[in-house]
From TrEMBL:
Gene: LOC111144230
Alphabetical keyword list: Membrane, Repeat, Transmembrane, Transmembrane helix
InterPro entries hit by this protein: EXPERA, TM6SF1-like, TM_Tm6sf1/2
GO CC terms of this entry: endoplasmic reticulum membrane; endoplasmic reticulum-Golgi intermediate compartment membrane
GO biological process, one term: lipid homeostasis
Keyword Transmembrane helix listed: yes
UniProt keyword Membrane, yes or no: yes
Name of the protein: Transmembrane 6 superfamily member 2
Transmembrane stretches, start-end: 33-52, 64-83, 103-128, 140-162, 168-187, 219-240, 269-288
Length: 376
């Protein structure tokens, strides 16, 4: 209630995407892919100039204000694309999906647009409002960073490697700043000062003196991370064409979407295996041994990443734009939905646990416990 009214200027600018998209959709000159790419770049440049003119104080205080405002504009555009492709809106962005980025018309493209137009949009408004109020937004920023990077890691390689690789248009190269800006933004978010912890030294010592068996929530999370790690490895082997019977049965009877030639599901499973799987191992270590102060931050990053990835993967697996042979079979729907929903919720619970009671992850305070550990 505090932050959202302060993001009113950002929301007003972002909603300008509605009339602008409708007007541009009827400009015949934009039927050429190069003209569309140049017009898109010009609009984003003019939007940045408008933001700088209207809010110089916020940009001087934190340049990410301009980034979040521009990205909130593109989030509204993405939501229009998703609603249009599902038949819930008129021809707002037909010109862009036909001549600019036709791969946004895939099931995966539709769902990343839904996520960007809802979750990312709310995060942009909240973070822009926090900057206007001169408040911290580090946790929101870390969650957004993980979500955004995951979508880029899967979507861009999928466009190049999948069946839409022959339809790369000039507008695709607008993704270059879309990749570089979050790298810079991520560094700034990580470098922000953390909120001061309110844990007394005796509370930290007490928490860190407990073994894993005396912490049932952490024990449950370690068990979850272990099982999720095996599931991650298994699905990675499935998309790598592992010849075992279990992999064959799974890809044909439970998740045939992994065979879809659009390549997004294959890239997604490989990203899980090479990035998320190692994190699960490190997170289990951080839950067992005290003082892993890096875990709360990275738990937020991976919570955003897995949340975005699972939303897009689950939605695309059942969407009508996915060919029928690659959709989830009716008799496997409950198993597919249950396992993938658990896979999505686990990192969210891990991040919540790290923020809820952070004492276990703080650096051990000087005292008898720390001295005892050094002697050991």
């Amino acid at each position: 209630m505090d932050i959202l009214p302060l993001a009113g200027k950002t929301a007003a600018l972002s909603l300008g995407a509605l009339p602008l998209s409708y007007a541009i959709n009827h400009v015949s000159a934009l039927s050429h892919p190069l003209g569309l790419a140049l017009m898109s770049a010009l609009i984003l440049g003019l939007l940045f100039v408008a933001i700088y003119s209207l809010s110089p104080g916020e940009i001087y205080y934190d340049p990410l204000y301009a980034v979040f405002t521009v990205f909130s504009f593109t989030s509204v555009v993405d939501l229009l694309i998703a609603l249009q492709e599902d038949g819930y809106a008129g021809s707002f962005m037909e010109f862009f999906t036909k001549e600019g980025e036709p791969y946004l018309r895939t099931a995966h493209g539709v769902f990343i647009c839904y996520w960007d137009g809802t979750v990312h949009y709310l995060l942009y408004l909240a973070m822009a409002g926090a900057i206007r109020r001169r408040k911290r937004y580090r946790n929101l920023g870390l969650y957004w960073l993980g979500s955004f990077v995951m979508s880029v890691l899967v979507f861009l390689p999928g466009n190049i490697l999948g069946k839409y690789s022959s339809e790369i248009r000039p507008a695709f190269f607008l993704a270059i700043p879309y990749v570089l800006v979050p790298c810079w933004a991520g560094v700034r978010v990580f470098n922000q000062a953390q909120a001061p912890n309110c844990c007394a030294p005796n509370v930290v010592q007490e928490e860190q003196s407990k073994g894993i068996l005396r912490r049932p929530v952490d024990l449950a999370l370690v068990i979850y991370l272990t099982l999720a790690g095996f599931f991650t490895l298994f699905r990675g082997l499935v998309v790598l064409d592992c010849p075992t019977d279990a992999c064959f049965v799974y890809i044909y009877q439970y998740e045939p979407y992994l065979r879809d030639p659009v390549a997004y599901p294959k890239v997604q499973m490989l990203v899980y295996m090479f990035y998320v799987l190692p994190f699960y191992g490190l997170a289990a270590y951080g839950l067992i041994f005290p003082g892993c102060s890096w875990l709360p931050d990275w738990a937020l990053v991976f919570a955003g990443a897995v949340g975005q990835a699972q939303f897009s993967h689950m939605g695309a697996s059942m969407h009508v734009r996915t060919p029928f042979t690659y959709r989830v079979p009716d008799d496997a729907w409950a198993c597919f939905f249950g396992s993938n929903l658990l896979y999505a919720l686990g990192p969210q619970l891990l991040a919540f646990r790290c923020l809820w009671r952070p004492a276990f992850f703080l650096h051990p305070p000087p005292g008898p416990l720390a001295h005892h550990k050094k002697e050991d």
